From TrEMBL, chains A, B:
This is Membrane protein. GO terms for cellular component: endomembrane system. One of its GO terms (biological process) is intracellular manganese ion homeostasis. The chain crosses the membrane at residues 174-195, 207-228, 240-258. Coiled coil: none annotated.
Length: 263, 263
């Protein structure tokens, strides 16, 4: 990304040679292992941590709004941490596994069709490349080349007909990564709450200590999302802070108003 | 899917004509608007409802485990419903928007490269098709055809180089769908809890009434996931029941044991 910006800048500055060099560097970089590869489990980690911190803090805020004791804040915060963390992790695991199963099944289906109805499948390849602007002898030769290799043929059907780009990800590892990072993220508001309880000067303000520390952590975790969600870090950080704040204010508000109704 | 199974069955039964007919039907069906199109917001709805029911019930279980009053179960259940629902919805909205932005930016980048460094980009197209088994004159003609049209050229780079298949989804609609379905799903355990309170025979068993109704609802919502997650409905239903049950048991357990420590 950076190198393309460099190329654009050089081009605008009337230095086409520098632009060409930067562009070439970019081309080489693009052939290195894909950025998404590196981010395969990183995205589970970052998203898990985000979710953990937002939902745990919403529980802390709701309980505080309902004017329950600090002990209950911790009990329910921990209960939510474990319960939600497990459900997120299991959801990630099952989701990834079903995606892997689905892609494998579609691949087997295409392979079966290629083996048993080669003519129909060949016609589909022809149609795909006709739409890309080929015709006549060239079209036939392309169809010939693609269908000469079973793997290549199936791959073409997957991408062009089914629009499936396969991703190789271990469901179990994705689930575990989600669980651990959810626990780590979700522990932040609770640890802040406990720490505040240890210092007499802060003890009466456990909730506010938790607010400040959690806000900083939300911004930090949010800005880390920029590694996987294609967004400038400061914007990702602020957005996360806004989402987490909104959730906490809503939970606090419900707790506060319903407590009034209940008493 | 069904028609392919039909084709396979007919083929195995030694009726290639019936198999060919079924296969042809399948080919026609595949040209109809893609199944994923229909499921674009359906997946947000189903996933939102699943998440709502699981997390709200985990809160109900945690509070019950900590032996707090039914009023507090409802207050905290509602606080969590609104807080988590808002954060889920905002997360969906921001995630979709950043995905749309990213794809648009990558498309603009490729377009810029195609316009300013056509030779480098043409070499990339050549490389892509060389890997598909083309060479010599045919390869050159394919490169010529693809690069003759700017739109087609950029599309090829998006799919083959960047592995991006663009999805047109309205972020706002995705976020709202998530919010509403989260509220509907999450309301189920709470409504069950309230209803139980209205019947004297059940009043002492509010939690268990909520357990039974929630379990049925979890299975139902879970089996609806089979529409979007490529899984048989009964398996999707049972898996969701297992995930929700696990989360609830964990939350109940933490509430129960920590209450013991606290008192």
């Amino acid at each position: 990304m950076k190198r393309v910006d460099e190329a654009r800048r050089a081009y605008r500055q009337g230095d086409p040679d520098a632009a060409a060099r930067a562009h070439e560097m970019n081309r080489i970089a693009a052939e290195e292992p894909h950025e998404q590869e590196r981010g395969k489990y990183l995205s589970d980690a970052v998203l898990g941590a985000s979710d953990g911190i937002v939902t745990t803090f919403a529980v802390v805020a709701g309980v505080t709004g309902a004017a329950l004791s600090p002990t209950i804040v911790l009990i329910l915060g921990l209960a939510n941490l474990l319960g939600d963390g497990l459900s997120m992790a299991a959801g990630t695991y099952l989701g990834e596994r079903s995606e892997v199963d689905y892609q494998q099944k579609e691949r087997e289906r295409e392979l079966w069709e290629v083996r048993h109805f080669p003519e129909g499948e060949r016609a589909e390849v022809r149609e795909i490349y006709r739409k890309k602007g080929l015709s006549g002898e060239v079209l036939e030769q392309v169809v010939e080349a693609i269908t000469a290799d079973e793997e290549r043929w199936v791959e073409t059907m997957m991408r062009e007909e089914l629009e499936i780009i396969e991703e190789r990800k271990d469901p179990l590892r994705a689930g575990l990564t989600t669980f651990v990072s959810f626990l780590v993220g979700g522990a932040i508001p609770l640890v802040a709450y406990i720490l505040a309880g240890l210092f007499p000067a802060l003890a009466a303000h456990g909730f506010w200590a938790s607010v400040v520390i959690t806000a900083l952590a939300m911004f930090t975790v949010g800005s880390m999302r920029s590694i996987v969600i294609h967004k400038p870090w400061h914007r990702a950080g602020l957005e996360m802070l806004a989402v987490g704040g909104l959730a906490a204010v809503a939970a606090y508000g419900v707790g506060y108003f319903l407590r009034g109704l209940a008493s």
